[in-house]
Amino acid sequence: MLYLSMFVIGLTVGKGSHKGMARCSLLLSSIAFVMAAGILWERSTVHRDDYSYDFDWLVIGDIFYRIGYELNNVSSWLLMLIASLNILLLLLLHNKQEQQMIASIYGYIGLLLSAVSGLVLADHMLTFFTCAILISCSVYLLLSHPVYGCVPKAIFRFVTAQLLGFSAFLVALVGLYWYMPDHSLQFTMLETVFSSSAPSFTPFMKKIIAGALVVSALLIAGISPYANWMKHIGTERPVLRVVMFCFANALLPAYLLLRFHMIITEVDTVVWLCKLAGAIIVVWCTVRMLLDAQQTLSYIGMMMVGIIVFAYGHGAYGYMIVQLTLILFSLIVIYGAKMQSSSIIVYGAFLVAILTLIGVPPLSGYWMQQSLVATIAGTSTGWFIVSLLVVLCSALGTTIYFTMQWKTQFNQTGKGMLPVVILPALLLIAIGLLWLVDYMQLEIWLFEKVTSESMKLLPMVLTMLSVAVGVIIAWLFSERITDAFASSLEQADQQLKSQAERFGRSVMRLGRSIVSLEQMIERGVVQLLTVWLPYPFRIVSRAGANGHLLHSVVLVVVFTAVVTALWYGIRGR
To answer: Where are the domains of the chain?
Structure first.
Protein backbone atom coordinates (compact mmCIF):
# COMPACT_ATOMS: atom_id res chain seq x y z
CA MET A 1 0.00 0.00 0.00
CA LEU A 2 2.94 2.34 0.60
CA TYR A 3 4.23 1.72 -2.92
CA LEU A 4 0.73 2.14 -4.32
CA SER A 5 0.55 5.50 -2.54
CA MET A 6 3.68 6.53 -4.45
CA PHE A 7 1.83 5.79 -7.69
CA VAL A 8 -1.24 7.81 -6.69
CA ILE A 9 0.79 10.78 -5.43
CA GLY A 10 3.06 10.69 -8.47
CA LEU A 11 0.12 11.04 -10.84
CA THR A 12 -1.84 13.63 -8.84
CA VAL A 13 -0.26 15.69 -6.07
CA GLY A 14 3.35 15.41 -7.19
CA LYS A 15 2.69 15.92 -10.88
CA GLY A 16 4.27 19.35 -11.04
CA SER A 17 6.92 19.01 -8.32
CA HIS A 18 9.91 16.82 -9.05
CA LYS A 19 11.77 17.53 -5.82
CA GLY A 20 8.69 17.15 -3.65
CA MET A 21 7.82 13.85 -5.28
CA ALA A 22 11.39 12.63 -4.84
CA ARG A 23 11.31 13.39 -1.11
CA CYS A 24 7.85 11.85 -0.71
CA SER A 25 8.94 8.66 -2.53
CA LEU A 26 12.07 8.40 -0.41
CA LEU A 27 10.03 8.81 2.79
CA LEU A 28 7.46 6.16 1.84
CA SER A 29 10.20 3.81 0.63
CA SER A 30 12.12 4.26 3.88
CA ILE A 31 9.03 3.29 5.88
CA ALA A 32 8.58 0.21 3.68
CA PHE A 33 12.27 -0.65 4.13
CA VAL A 34 12.01 -0.45 7.93
CA MET A 35 8.89 -2.66 7.88
CA ALA A 36 10.58 -5.23 5.64
CA ALA A 37 13.70 -5.24 7.83
CA GLY A 38 11.59 -5.76 10.95
CA ILE A 39 9.68 -8.64 9.37
CA LEU A 40 12.89 -10.33 8.20
CA TRP A 41 14.51 -9.89 11.62
CA GLU A 42 11.47 -11.30 13.41
CA ARG A 43 11.25 -14.35 11.15
CA SER A 44 14.98 -15.03 11.40
CA THR A 45 15.14 -14.83 15.21
CA VAL A 46 11.76 -16.13 16.39
CA HIS A 47 10.18 -19.27 15.00
CA ARG A 48 6.73 -18.35 13.71
CA ASP A 49 4.15 -19.90 11.49
CA ASP A 50 3.43 -18.33 8.14
CA TYR A 51 1.39 -15.16 8.47
CA SER A 52 -1.68 -15.14 6.28
CA TYR A 53 -4.91 -13.29 5.84
CA ASP A 54 -7.79 -14.13 3.52
CA PHE A 55 -11.45 -13.45 2.97
CA ASP A 56 -14.18 -15.18 1.03
CA TRP A 57 -14.50 -13.75 -2.45
CA LEU A 58 -16.84 -16.40 -3.84
CA VAL A 59 -19.22 -18.82 -2.11
CA ILE A 60 -20.86 -21.65 -4.06
CA GLY A 61 -22.94 -23.94 -1.87
CA ASP A 62 -20.70 -25.28 0.87
CA ILE A 63 -17.47 -24.33 -0.94
CA PHE A 64 -15.66 -21.12 0.05
CA TYR A 65 -13.12 -19.58 -2.33
CA ARG A 66 -10.71 -17.36 -0.43
CA ILE A 67 -8.26 -14.69 -1.51
CA GLY A 68 -5.60 -12.93 0.54
CA TYR A 69 -1.87 -12.94 1.22
CA GLU A 70 0.70 -15.26 2.79
CA LEU A 71 3.98 -14.23 4.36
CA ASN A 72 6.64 -16.94 4.73
CA ASN A 73 10.43 -16.94 4.99
CA VAL A 74 11.04 -16.72 1.24
CA SER A 75 8.60 -13.86 0.77
CA SER A 76 10.09 -11.97 3.73
CA TRP A 77 13.57 -12.32 2.16
CA LEU A 78 12.27 -11.07 -1.20
CA LEU A 79 10.36 -8.18 0.40
CA MET A 80 13.58 -7.04 2.04
CA LEU A 81 15.37 -7.34 -1.30
CA ILE A 82 12.66 -5.31 -3.06
CA ALA A 83 12.70 -2.60 -0.40
CA SER A 84 16.50 -2.36 -0.52
CA LEU A 85 16.57 -2.10 -4.31
CA ASN A 86 13.90 0.59 -4.16
CA ILE A 87 15.96 2.74 -1.77
CA LEU A 88 19.08 2.34 -3.90
CA LEU A 89 17.22 3.15 -7.12
CA LEU A 90 15.72 6.30 -5.63
CA LEU A 91 19.18 7.42 -4.53
CA LEU A 92 20.49 6.80 -8.04
CA LEU A 93 17.68 8.91 -9.49
CA HIS A 94 19.06 11.96 -7.63
CA ASN A 95 22.13 11.91 -9.87
CA LYS A 96 22.54 14.82 -12.28
CA GLN A 97 22.24 12.44 -15.19
CA GLU A 98 18.62 11.88 -14.15
CA GLN A 99 17.65 15.49 -13.53
CA GLN A 100 15.15 15.38 -16.39
CA MET A 101 13.08 12.89 -14.44
CA ILE A 102 9.52 13.99 -13.78
CA ALA A 103 7.19 13.02 -10.97
CA SER A 104 5.23 10.46 -12.98
CA ILE A 105 8.34 8.27 -13.24
CA TYR A 106 8.33 7.89 -9.46
CA GLY A 107 4.66 6.97 -9.70
CA TYR A 108 5.33 4.26 -12.29
CA ILE A 109 8.15 2.85 -10.14
CA GLY A 110 5.75 2.81 -7.17
CA LEU A 111 3.18 0.91 -9.23
CA LEU A 112 5.88 -1.58 -10.26
CA LEU A 113 7.03 -2.13 -6.67
CA SER A 114 3.44 -2.55 -5.50
CA ALA A 115 2.88 -5.23 -8.16
CA VAL A 116 6.12 -7.04 -7.28
CA SER A 117 5.24 -7.01 -3.57
CA GLY A 118 1.76 -8.32 -4.36
CA LEU A 119 3.27 -11.09 -6.46
CA VAL A 120 5.52 -12.17 -3.58
CA LEU A 121 2.68 -12.14 -1.05
CA ALA A 122 -0.05 -13.63 -3.28
CA ASP A 123 -1.64 -16.89 -2.12
CA HIS A 124 -4.21 -16.99 -4.90
CA MET A 125 -4.01 -17.56 -8.65
CA LEU A 126 -6.09 -14.46 -9.34
CA THR A 127 -3.82 -12.08 -7.44
CA PHE A 128 -0.68 -13.83 -8.65
CA PHE A 129 -1.68 -13.53 -12.31
CA THR A 130 -2.96 -9.96 -11.88
CA CYS A 131 0.25 -8.77 -10.20
CA ALA A 132 2.37 -10.47 -12.85
CA ILE A 133 0.53 -8.64 -15.63
CA LEU A 134 0.74 -5.39 -13.66
CA ILE A 135 4.54 -5.73 -13.50
CA SER A 136 4.72 -5.90 -17.29
CA CYS A 137 2.33 -2.96 -17.65
CA SER A 138 4.47 -0.85 -15.30
CA VAL A 139 7.64 -1.62 -17.25
CA TYR A 140 5.80 -0.77 -20.46
CA LEU A 141 4.81 2.62 -19.01
CA LEU A 142 8.47 3.28 -18.17
CA LEU A 143 9.70 2.17 -21.60
CA SER A 144 7.19 4.26 -23.49
CA HIS A 145 7.80 7.40 -21.43
CA PRO A 146 9.29 10.26 -23.53
CA VAL A 147 12.01 10.85 -20.93
CA TYR A 148 13.70 7.55 -21.72
CA GLY A 149 13.26 7.77 -25.49
CA CYS A 150 13.33 4.03 -26.13
CA VAL A 151 13.21 2.64 -29.65
CA PRO A 152 9.63 1.64 -30.59
CA LYS A 153 10.97 -1.66 -31.94
CA ALA A 154 12.21 -2.57 -28.46
CA ILE A 155 8.88 -1.68 -26.88
CA PHE A 156 7.03 -3.82 -29.42
CA ARG A 157 9.31 -6.79 -28.79
CA PHE A 158 8.96 -6.45 -25.04
CA VAL A 159 5.17 -6.32 -25.26
CA THR A 160 4.89 -9.32 -27.59
CA ALA A 161 7.27 -11.43 -25.48
CA GLN A 162 5.36 -10.61 -22.31
CA LEU A 163 1.98 -11.30 -23.94
CA LEU A 164 3.19 -14.66 -25.20
CA GLY A 165 4.47 -15.47 -21.71
CA PHE A 166 1.17 -14.64 -20.06
CA SER A 167 -0.68 -16.59 -22.76
CA ALA A 168 1.34 -19.67 -21.80
CA PHE A 169 0.52 -18.98 -18.15
CA LEU A 170 -3.16 -18.76 -19.08
CA VAL A 171 -2.89 -22.16 -20.79
CA ALA A 172 -1.69 -23.59 -17.47
CA LEU A 173 -4.64 -22.01 -15.64
CA VAL A 174 -7.13 -23.39 -18.16
CA GLY A 175 -5.49 -26.81 -17.89
CA LEU A 176 -5.82 -26.69 -14.12
CA TYR A 177 -9.48 -25.77 -14.37
CA TRP A 178 -10.18 -28.48 -16.97
CA TYR A 179 -8.63 -31.29 -14.95
CA MET A 180 -9.96 -30.26 -11.57
CA PRO A 181 -12.79 -32.48 -10.26
CA ASP A 182 -16.14 -31.14 -11.46
CA HIS A 183 -14.27 -28.21 -13.09
CA SER A 184 -13.95 -26.60 -9.69
CA LEU A 185 -12.29 -23.28 -8.95
CA GLN A 186 -10.34 -24.83 -6.10
CA PHE A 187 -7.17 -24.56 -8.19
CA THR A 188 -7.26 -20.78 -7.79
CA MET A 189 -6.06 -21.12 -4.20
CA LEU A 190 -2.35 -21.87 -4.51
CA GLU A 191 -2.18 -24.11 -1.45
CA THR A 192 -4.65 -26.43 -3.19
CA VAL A 193 -2.31 -26.80 -6.14
CA PHE A 194 0.53 -27.68 -3.80
CA SER A 195 -1.32 -30.20 -1.64
CA SER A 196 -4.47 -32.16 -2.26
CA SER A 197 -5.15 -31.64 -5.95
CA ALA A 198 -1.70 -32.03 -7.50
CA PRO A 199 -1.37 -35.83 -6.86
CA SER A 200 -4.70 -36.45 -8.58
CA PHE A 201 -3.60 -34.87 -11.85
CA THR A 202 -2.84 -37.23 -14.72
CA PRO A 203 0.76 -37.42 -16.05
CA PHE A 204 -0.28 -35.88 -19.36
CA MET A 205 -1.99 -33.00 -17.58
CA LYS A 206 1.10 -32.41 -15.44
CA LYS A 207 3.26 -32.26 -18.57
CA ILE A 208 0.99 -29.68 -20.17
CA ILE A 209 0.86 -27.46 -17.09
CA ALA A 210 4.56 -27.79 -16.21
CA GLY A 211 5.60 -27.12 -19.81
CA ALA A 212 3.31 -24.09 -20.03
CA LEU A 213 4.68 -22.63 -16.79
CA VAL A 214 8.32 -23.08 -17.83
CA VAL A 215 7.67 -21.64 -21.29
CA SER A 216 5.89 -18.71 -19.65
CA ALA A 217 8.90 -18.02 -17.43
CA LEU A 218 11.34 -18.15 -20.38
CA LEU A 219 9.17 -15.83 -22.47
CA ILE A 220 8.76 -13.32 -19.64
CA ALA A 221 12.53 -13.39 -19.05
CA GLY A 222 13.05 -12.29 -22.65
CA ILE A 223 14.94 -15.42 -23.72
CA SER A 224 12.54 -16.08 -26.57
CA PRO A 225 11.15 -15.50 -29.16
CA TYR A 226 13.59 -12.70 -30.00
CA ALA A 227 16.60 -14.32 -28.26
CA ASN A 228 17.55 -10.92 -26.82
CA TRP A 229 15.41 -7.83 -27.30
CA MET A 230 17.12 -5.64 -24.67
CA LYS A 231 19.89 -4.64 -27.09
CA HIS A 232 17.29 -2.66 -29.05
CA ILE A 233 16.33 -0.37 -26.17
CA GLY A 234 18.69 2.39 -27.26
CA THR A 235 18.53 4.45 -24.05
CA GLU A 236 21.48 5.95 -22.23
CA ARG A 237 19.82 5.82 -18.83
CA PRO A 238 21.14 2.80 -16.90
CA VAL A 239 18.49 3.06 -14.18
CA LEU A 240 15.83 1.90 -16.65
CA ARG A 241 17.89 -1.17 -17.55
CA VAL A 242 18.35 -2.00 -13.86
CA VAL A 243 14.62 -1.66 -13.16
CA MET A 244 13.62 -3.76 -16.16
CA PHE A 245 16.06 -6.58 -15.52
CA CYS A 246 15.66 -6.68 -11.73
CA PHE A 247 11.89 -6.93 -11.67
CA ALA A 248 10.55 -7.96 -15.09
CA ASN A 249 13.30 -10.16 -16.54
CA ALA A 250 14.79 -11.80 -13.44
CA LEU A 251 12.64 -11.72 -10.31
CA LEU A 252 9.26 -12.34 -11.98
CA PRO A 253 10.21 -15.48 -13.99
CA ALA A 254 12.40 -16.87 -11.19
CA TYR A 255 9.63 -16.52 -8.61
CA LEU A 256 7.12 -18.02 -11.04
CA LEU A 257 9.29 -21.14 -11.29
CA LEU A 258 9.78 -21.30 -7.53
CA ARG A 259 6.12 -20.81 -6.68
CA PHE A 260 4.99 -23.69 -8.90
CA HIS A 261 7.97 -25.98 -8.35
CA MET A 262 5.80 -28.70 -6.73
CA ILE A 263 4.01 -29.20 -10.06
CA ILE A 264 6.95 -28.61 -12.41
CA THR A 265 9.38 -30.91 -10.62
CA GLU A 266 6.98 -33.84 -10.88
CA VAL A 267 7.61 -33.95 -14.64
CA ASP A 268 11.13 -35.27 -15.26
CA THR A 269 11.10 -34.24 -18.92
CA VAL A 270 10.43 -30.60 -18.12
CA VAL A 271 13.08 -30.57 -15.39
CA TRP A 272 15.60 -32.08 -17.81
CA LEU A 273 14.71 -29.42 -20.37
CA CYS A 274 15.37 -26.73 -17.73
CA LYS A 275 18.84 -28.14 -17.17
CA LEU A 276 19.55 -28.27 -20.89
CA ALA A 277 18.03 -24.86 -21.66
CA GLY A 278 19.99 -23.17 -18.87
CA ALA A 279 23.30 -24.64 -20.06
CA ILE A 280 22.59 -23.71 -23.70
CA ILE A 281 21.68 -20.14 -22.75
CA VAL A 282 24.92 -19.65 -20.80
CA VAL A 283 27.12 -21.12 -23.55
CA TRP A 284 25.29 -19.25 -26.32
CA CYS A 285 25.55 -15.90 -24.55
CA THR A 286 29.26 -16.46 -23.97
CA VAL A 287 29.81 -17.19 -27.66
CA ARG A 288 27.87 -14.06 -28.59
CA MET A 289 30.08 -12.00 -26.28
CA LEU A 290 33.16 -13.44 -27.96
CA LEU A 291 31.80 -12.59 -31.38
CA ASP A 292 30.77 -9.04 -30.44
CA ALA A 293 32.31 -7.71 -27.25
CA GLN A 294 30.47 -4.40 -27.69
CA GLN A 295 27.15 -6.14 -26.96
CA THR A 296 28.15 -7.58 -23.58
CA LEU A 297 25.58 -5.36 -21.87
CA SER A 298 22.82 -7.06 -23.86
CA TYR A 299 23.87 -10.64 -23.12
CA ILE A 300 25.15 -10.51 -19.54
CA GLY A 301 21.64 -10.37 -18.08
CA MET A 302 20.39 -13.26 -20.19
CA MET A 303 23.41 -15.34 -19.16
CA MET A 304 22.57 -14.74 -15.48
CA VAL A 305 18.99 -15.83 -16.06
CA GLY A 306 20.34 -18.95 -17.78
CA ILE A 307 22.38 -19.82 -14.69
CA ILE A 308 19.27 -19.48 -12.52
CA VAL A 309 17.26 -21.75 -14.87
CA PHE A 310 20.11 -24.29 -14.86
CA ALA A 311 20.15 -24.29 -11.05
CA TYR A 312 16.37 -24.68 -10.99
CA GLY A 313 16.64 -27.84 -13.08
CA HIS A 314 18.89 -29.33 -10.39
CA GLY A 315 16.63 -28.36 -7.50
CA ALA A 316 19.01 -25.77 -6.01
CA TYR A 317 16.26 -23.41 -4.85
CA GLY A 318 18.32 -21.78 -2.12
CA TYR A 319 21.01 -21.07 -4.69
CA MET A 320 18.40 -19.37 -6.90
CA ILE A 321 17.23 -16.98 -4.18
CA VAL A 322 20.69 -16.01 -2.94
CA GLN A 323 22.19 -15.82 -6.44
CA LEU A 324 19.32 -13.59 -7.53
CA THR A 325 20.07 -11.35 -4.55
CA LEU A 326 23.76 -11.18 -5.45
CA ILE A 327 22.99 -10.37 -9.08
CA LEU A 328 20.57 -7.55 -8.27
CA PHE A 329 22.84 -5.92 -5.70
CA SER A 330 25.83 -6.26 -8.05
CA LEU A 331 23.97 -4.51 -10.86
CA ILE A 332 23.07 -1.65 -8.52
CA VAL A 333 26.74 -1.29 -7.56
CA ILE A 334 27.98 -1.46 -11.16
CA TYR A 335 25.55 1.11 -12.57
CA GLY A 336 25.74 3.25 -9.46
CA ALA A 337 29.52 3.37 -9.66
CA LYS A 338 29.33 4.60 -13.25
CA MET A 339 27.27 7.58 -12.11
CA GLN A 340 29.49 8.48 -9.13
CA SER A 341 32.69 10.49 -8.98
CA SER A 342 35.95 8.60 -9.39
CA SER A 343 37.31 7.52 -6.03
CA ILE A 344 38.96 4.55 -4.40
CA ILE A 345 35.73 3.68 -2.57
CA VAL A 346 33.69 3.68 -5.77
CA TYR A 347 36.24 1.61 -7.67
CA GLY A 348 36.55 -0.77 -4.73
CA ALA A 349 32.78 -1.32 -4.58
CA PHE A 350 32.76 -1.75 -8.36
CA LEU A 351 35.43 -4.46 -8.13
CA VAL A 352 33.56 -6.25 -5.32
CA ALA A 353 30.41 -6.43 -7.45
CA ILE A 354 32.21 -7.58 -10.61
CA LEU A 355 34.35 -10.17 -8.84
CA THR A 356 31.25 -11.45 -7.07
CA LEU A 357 29.53 -12.06 -10.40
CA ILE A 358 32.66 -13.67 -11.83
CA GLY A 359 32.92 -16.01 -8.85
CA VAL A 360 36.42 -15.16 -7.68
CA PRO A 361 37.20 -16.66 -4.25
CA PRO A 362 36.80 -15.81 -1.42
CA LEU A 363 33.84 -13.59 -2.37
CA SER A 364 30.25 -14.79 -2.16
CA GLY A 365 29.87 -15.56 -5.86
CA TYR A 366 32.45 -18.34 -5.67
CA TRP A 367 30.81 -20.09 -2.70
CA MET A 368 27.47 -19.95 -4.50
CA GLN A 369 28.93 -21.57 -7.61
CA GLN A 370 30.77 -24.15 -5.53
CA SER A 371 27.59 -25.11 -3.69
CA LEU A 372 25.81 -25.59 -7.03
CA VAL A 373 28.61 -27.75 -8.43
CA ALA A 374 28.79 -29.79 -5.22
CA THR A 375 25.03 -30.37 -5.35
CA ILE A 376 25.21 -31.63 -8.94
CA ALA A 377 28.33 -33.73 -8.31
CA GLY A 378 26.45 -35.98 -5.92
CA THR A 379 23.73 -36.83 -8.46
CA SER A 380 25.17 -37.16 -11.97
CA THR A 381 28.68 -37.22 -13.43
CA GLY A 382 27.52 -35.96 -16.82
CA TRP A 383 25.73 -32.93 -15.41
CA PHE A 384 28.67 -32.37 -13.08
CA ILE A 385 30.89 -31.83 -16.14
CA VAL A 386 28.23 -29.57 -17.67
CA SER A 387 28.08 -27.53 -14.46
CA LEU A 388 31.84 -26.96 -14.66
CA LEU A 389 31.36 -25.76 -18.25
CA VAL A 390 28.59 -23.42 -17.09
CA VAL A 391 30.86 -22.01 -14.36
CA LEU A 392 33.68 -21.54 -16.89
CA CYS A 393 31.41 -19.75 -19.38
CA SER A 394 29.94 -17.60 -16.61
CA ALA A 395 33.40 -16.49 -15.46
CA LEU A 396 34.48 -15.93 -19.07
CA GLY A 397 31.45 -13.89 -20.09
CA THR A 398 31.33 -11.83 -16.89
CA THR A 399 35.05 -11.01 -17.16
CA ILE A 400 34.52 -9.79 -20.73
CA TYR A 401 31.67 -7.66 -19.44
CA PHE A 402 33.93 -6.36 -16.66
CA THR A 403 36.72 -5.38 -19.06
CA MET A 404 34.28 -3.56 -21.36
CA GLN A 405 32.72 -1.68 -18.42
CA TRP A 406 36.12 -0.83 -16.96
CA LYS A 407 37.18 0.82 -20.23
CA THR A 408 34.23 3.22 -20.12
CA GLN A 409 34.91 6.43 -18.23
CA PHE A 410 33.09 7.11 -15.00
CA ASN A 411 30.88 10.16 -14.80
CA GLN A 412 32.47 13.05 -12.92
CA THR A 413 29.21 14.85 -12.05
CA GLY A 414 28.46 13.05 -8.80
CA LYS A 415 30.92 14.85 -6.53
CA GLY A 416 29.73 15.76 -3.09
CA MET A 417 27.13 13.01 -3.07
CA LEU A 418 27.27 10.08 -0.69
CA PRO A 419 28.19 7.04 -2.82
CA VAL A 420 25.19 4.70 -2.86
CA VAL A 421 27.39 1.78 -3.85
CA ILE A 422 28.93 1.23 -0.43
CA LEU A 423 25.95 -0.41 1.26
CA PRO A 424 25.18 -3.00 -1.47
CA ALA A 425 28.90 -3.83 -1.77
CA LEU A 426 29.02 -4.52 1.98
CA LEU A 427 25.85 -6.61 1.67
CA LEU A 428 27.49 -8.70 -1.06
CA ILE A 429 30.35 -9.50 1.30
CA ALA A 430 28.00 -10.15 4.24
CA ILE A 431 25.78 -12.53 2.26
CA GLY A 432 28.85 -14.44 1.14
CA LEU A 433 30.05 -14.80 4.72
CA LEU A 434 26.57 -15.88 5.82
CA TRP A 435 26.44 -18.53 3.09
CA LEU A 436 29.95 -19.73 3.94
CA VAL A 437 29.33 -19.98 7.69
CA ASP A 438 26.03 -21.85 7.64
CA TYR A 439 24.52 -22.17 4.17
CA MET A 440 22.58 -25.33 5.05
CA GLN A 441 20.79 -23.52 7.84
CA LEU A 442 19.90 -20.73 5.41
CA GLU A 443 18.40 -23.23 2.95
CA ILE A 444 16.45 -24.91 5.74
CA TRP A 445 15.13 -21.51 6.81
CA LEU A 446 14.13 -20.59 3.25
CA PHE A 447 12.60 -23.85 2.04
CA GLU A 448 12.51 -26.09 5.11
CA LYS A 449 14.77 -28.63 3.41
CA VAL A 450 18.42 -29.07 2.44
CA THR A 451 19.11 -28.95 -1.31
CA SER A 452 22.92 -28.69 -1.31
CA GLU A 453 25.66 -31.18 -0.59
CA SER A 454 28.42 -30.47 1.86
CA MET A 455 31.51 -28.87 0.38
CA LYS A 456 33.92 -31.48 -0.97
CA LEU A 457 37.51 -31.14 -2.07
CA LEU A 458 37.18 -32.28 -5.70
CA PRO A 459 34.20 -30.03 -6.63
CA MET A 460 35.85 -27.14 -4.82
CA VAL A 461 39.14 -27.52 -6.72
CA LEU A 462 37.45 -28.05 -10.09
CA THR A 463 35.15 -25.07 -9.55
CA MET A 464 38.12 -22.86 -8.72
CA LEU A 465 39.96 -24.20 -11.77
CA SER A 466 36.97 -23.49 -14.04
CA VAL A 467 36.73 -19.93 -12.74
CA ALA A 468 40.49 -19.43 -13.19
CA VAL A 469 40.46 -20.77 -16.77
CA GLY A 470 37.50 -18.57 -17.67
CA VAL A 471 39.17 -15.46 -16.20
CA ILE A 472 42.48 -16.21 -17.96
CA ILE A 473 40.81 -16.69 -21.34
CA ALA A 474 38.80 -13.50 -20.95
CA TRP A 475 41.80 -11.55 -19.68
CA LEU A 476 43.74 -12.57 -22.79
CA PHE A 477 40.73 -11.46 -24.79
CA SER A 478 42.23 -8.01 -25.38
CA GLU A 479 41.25 -5.66 -28.17
CA ARG A 480 43.85 -7.08 -30.56
CA ILE A 481 42.95 -10.66 -29.76
CA THR A 482 39.28 -9.75 -29.82
CA ASP A 483 39.57 -8.32 -33.32
CA ALA A 484 41.68 -11.25 -34.52
CA PHE A 485 39.37 -13.81 -32.96
CA ALA A 486 36.29 -12.05 -34.23
CA SER A 487 37.76 -11.75 -37.74
CA SER A 488 38.71 -15.42 -37.74
CA LEU A 489 35.23 -16.37 -36.61
CA GLU A 490 33.72 -14.09 -39.25
CA GLN A 491 35.99 -15.66 -41.87
CA ALA A 492 34.93 -19.12 -40.74
CA ASP A 493 31.33 -17.97 -40.84
CA GLN A 494 31.79 -16.69 -44.39
CA GLN A 495 33.41 -19.98 -45.40
CA LEU A 496 30.56 -21.95 -43.89
CA LYS A 497 28.10 -19.65 -45.64
CA SER A 498 29.82 -20.09 -49.03
CA GLN A 499 30.02 -23.86 -48.53
CA ALA A 500 26.35 -23.90 -47.62
CA GLU A 501 25.54 -21.92 -50.75
CA ARG A 502 27.59 -24.32 -52.91
CA PHE A 503 25.92 -27.29 -51.27
CA GLY A 504 22.55 -25.68 -51.87
CA ARG A 505 23.35 -25.14 -55.56
CA SER A 506 24.49 -28.78 -55.86
CA VAL A 507 21.27 -29.94 -54.24
CA MET A 508 19.28 -27.78 -56.63
CA ARG A 509 21.15 -29.22 -59.65
CA LEU A 510 20.61 -32.72 -58.33
CA GLY A 511 16.95 -31.93 -57.86
CA ARG A 512 16.66 -30.64 -61.41
CA SER A 513 18.38 -33.81 -62.70
CA ILE A 514 15.98 -35.99 -60.74
CA VAL A 515 13.05 -34.05 -62.11
CA SER A 516 14.37 -34.44 -65.66
CA LEU A 517 14.85 -38.19 -65.12
CA GLU A 518 11.33 -38.48 -63.76
CA GLN A 519 9.99 -36.64 -66.81
CA MET A 520 11.89 -38.98 -69.13
CA ILE A 521 10.54 -42.04 -67.30
CA GLU A 522 7.06 -40.58 -67.42
CA ARG A 523 7.31 -39.96 -71.17
CA GLY A 524 8.64 -43.50 -71.65
CA VAL A 525 5.78 -45.03 -69.69
CA VAL A 526 3.27 -42.98 -71.66
CA GLN A 527 4.92 -44.06 -74.93
CA LEU A 528 4.88 -47.69 -73.83
CA LEU A 529 1.25 -47.63 -72.80
CA THR A 530 -0.05 -45.61 -75.75
CA VAL A 531 2.12 -46.90 -78.66
CA TRP A 532 4.09 -50.07 -78.06
CA LEU A 533 1.72 -52.20 -76.00
CA PRO A 534 -1.37 -51.55 -78.22
CA TYR A 535 0.71 -52.25 -81.38
CA PRO A 536 0.24 -56.08 -81.34
CA PHE A 537 -3.46 -55.59 -80.74
CA ARG A 538 -3.66 -53.33 -83.77
CA ILE A 539 -1.87 -55.96 -85.91
CA VAL A 540 -4.30 -58.66 -84.82
CA SER A 541 -7.23 -56.32 -85.37
CA ARG A 542 -6.12 -55.37 -88.88
CA ALA A 543 -5.33 -58.97 -89.86
CA GLY A 544 -8.69 -60.08 -88.54
CA ALA A 545 -10.45 -57.36 -90.47
CA ASN A 546 -8.72 -58.25 -93.75
CA GLY A 547 -8.75 -62.08 -93.37
CA HIS A 548 -11.24 -64.79 -92.58
CA LEU A 549 -12.30 -66.06 -89.16
CA LEU A 550 -9.85 -68.97 -88.92
CA HIS A 551 -6.91 -66.71 -89.65
CA SER A 552 -8.00 -64.31 -86.92
CA VAL A 553 -8.43 -67.13 -84.39
CA VAL A 554 -4.93 -68.43 -85.14
CA LEU A 555 -3.40 -64.97 -84.70
CA VAL A 556 -5.19 -64.51 -81.37
CA VAL A 557 -4.04 -67.92 -80.11
CA VAL A 558 -0.43 -67.25 -81.18
CA PHE A 559 -0.42 -63.82 -79.60
CA THR A 560 -1.93 -65.17 -76.38
CA ALA A 561 0.69 -67.94 -76.24
CA VAL A 562 3.52 -65.47 -76.74
CA VAL A 563 2.22 -63.09 -74.06
CA THR A 564 1.65 -66.00 -71.64
CA ALA A 565 5.17 -67.31 -72.22
CA LEU A 566 6.65 -63.88 -71.65
CA TRP A 567 4.56 -63.41 -68.50
CA TYR A 568 5.60 -66.68 -66.92
CA GLY A 569 9.19 -66.16 -67.98
CA ILE A 570 9.38 -62.74 -66.40
CA ARG A 571 7.45 -63.91 -63.33
CA GLY A 572 9.77 -66.91 -62.91
CA ARG A 573 12.78 -64.68 -62.88
So the answer is: 317-477
